[in-house]
Amino acid sequence: xxxxxxxxxxxxxxxxxxxxxxxxxxxxxxxxxxxxxxxxxxxxxxxxxxxxxxxxxxxxxxxxxxxxxxxxxxxxxxxxxxxxxxxxxxxxxxxxxxxxxxxxxxxxxxxxxxxxxxxxxxxxxxxxxxxxxxxxxxxxxxxxxxxxxxxxxxxxxxxxxxxxxxxxxxxxxxxxxxxxxxxxxxxxxxxxxxxxxxxxxxxxxxxxxxxxxxxxxxxxxxxxxxxxxxxxxxxxxxxxxxxxxxxxxxxxxxxxxxxxxxxxxxxxxxxxxxxxxxxxxxxxxxxxxxxxxxxxxxxxxxxxxxxxxxxxx
Amino acid sequence: xxxxxxxxxxxxxxxxxxxxxxxxxxxxxxxxxxxxxxxxxxxxxxxxxxxxxxxxxxxxxxxxxxxxxxxxxxxxxxxxxxxxxxxxxxxxxxxxxxxxxxxxxxxxxxxxxxxxxxxxxxxxxxxxxxxxxxxxxxxxxxxxxxxxxxxxxxxxxxxxxxxxxxxxxxxxxxxxxxxxxxxxxxxxxxxxxxxxxxxxxxxxxxxxxxxxxxxxxxxxxxxxxxxxxxxxxxxxxxxxxxxxxxxxxxxxxxxxxxxxxxxxxxxxxxxxxxxxxxxxxxxxxxxxxxxxxxxxxxxxxxxxxxxxxxxxxxxxxxxxxxxxxxxxxxxxxxxxxxxxxxxxxxxxxxxxxxxxxxxxxxxxxxxxxxxxxxxxxxxxxxxxxxxxxxxxxxxxxxxxxxxxxxxxxxxxxxxxxxxxxxxx
Lengths: 313, 424
Hints:
The structure holds two protein chains of two kinds. By secondary structure, chain A is of the alpha+beta class. Helices cover 31% and strands 22% of the residues of chain A. Chain A has a five-stranded antiparallel sheet with strand order 5-4-3-2-6, with helices on one face. In chain A, strands 8-9-7-10 form a four-stranded antiparallel sheet, with helices on one face. In chain A, helix 1 runs antiparallel to helix 2 (28-38). In chain B, helix 7 (172-181) packs antiparallel against helix 8. By secondary structure, chain B is of the alpha+beta class. Chain B has five domains: 10-71; 90-163, Orthogonal Bundle (Arc Repressor Mutant, subunit A), CATH 1.10.10.10; 172-219, no CATH class; 223-316, Roll (SH3 type barrels), CATH 2.30.30; 334-417, Alpha-Beta Plaits, CATH 3.30.70. The N and C termini of chain B lie far apart (59 Å). The interface between A and B is large, with 130 and 147 residues.
């Protein structure tokens, strides 16, 4: 069963309470801390009471568990099937081959890579079979975990070689680009590097403690546009921009105002994504964003006037 | 019934969560046609699960609740919490922990009688000991056996039960990454929650921090609400089985049932939409179904000519831009051609065209000009993408003249919207 109490936050929370209570008596305060960490906002109203009132007879009045063992549950068949699918994914090579062992021999993968078609992913994604790429990925992930510096040589977008010492923070993956980027502290403004452009990467001799590199600050921007709900634009637009922090407001039966918060580095991408909705959305603020759209339209109009296209001529 | 933050039925909450997240402008009155209490309960539940991701705004027609998440900054999909809110009885949770404790005695198998005796031993420690009848316990054990948690072995007429073996699981980084990028990723999140003893203790403690090793851009998180549907469809695809889909038409709010042979799942990483591509025997056509419009999936018979249908679909793929398998012009195939121009220092546009062309072909006419051509079932699907080249399009032609007229009409409307000459 997919939607099952076996995976519920309540079971996980009680398992964590019992895990403690098997070794020592737990107080109401201990239970409160565990509930706040693992369960939901209002679970504090139900879980401690159910344990205390013995509706769930699992804790003795002295706070010790009636269990003799640390609570644990084997993997369900559904979990094993999903893991088997993970093992079939080409990206798993980045982490090293995973050996699921003989217990998985009779387990069918939930799905195989060929069962899923991502139809609008860009085709110049990273090469996850490239040995150098894999080695760089693993070294970077290790450096993120252990927080040490890396000396990295990479090619810029214009083909120039750049050498940097970076304190890696995280690997950012884009499903659309099918690429990983390294985000890290470096120099005055931080660093964002495409893993596919890294030429060499090795642990630095420089110590992290003395490192003065800064993290990249997110340059948050907003854009507001009005949309007219024709040709199912409302649903298409709101789904398309769903991954941004956003707010939407209904103006009348057909018109809506949408504000999106984005990072300045993604502005050009956002301009073309807004253009893709044609006349169904119109940017209202800020003016510089309006001008970016206008400039593209003006350039198109210039071409039209030369070639006499758009006015039905 | 008294309010509870856990729920029995996921479909209702699925709809509310999508609405709060995607359509964050609806006021209470727009949800309360059927029941205002239902709205209040669902909103309260989602607020309890998502905390600060649930936000409120005052509007003239009332308070508006919405979910706002920058998925680039959230290490784990917050919507997974909805899948962890299944309701249960006092008996369910009690039996869960006691049965696994009994079965955790290494290398031992237990008859139902032994299990009942042990259970009584645990429960006798309380002032008012709860009593479970044998059929309830047997039913629970059989449920767990069906989930793969418990082994059942028959010796003569007696069934013996044992705990399924622990198996190794990949490291937390693997689970963190794939739980965000794989279909049905919430299953990875279940494993990470560490109910399973296999997630190493130090990893479990480190989980919060290790979640930050990865971040995700262009990350659509609403798809998780369709995970159960996808799970059932994947299972049917692997077994080459037909299914009955219960679907809803969002415009009319009507539901219907369609018998289909599921072939593939198609996913858009530019809108987050997930589709089932399926053969519909009643129409003898391969058709897309949006996963978020599928309410339930019931498995049917194994399909004898499954390979043949897969081959038919493979033959169609070179003409699929998105998921549409039918034109609006009644032409079997529609042709699209356009030419773009770019400056010497804009060679990235040429690269963009190459990486985004999908089933189309690109011809580089000179250093500054490229031509794109495609023969597709439905050229309307391409329009949004073509518009992203506005400012560079020197020539465009559609085999469907209505579409060509609409394209230029839209461009003229855009000129007008921004006050440029040449608009309507």
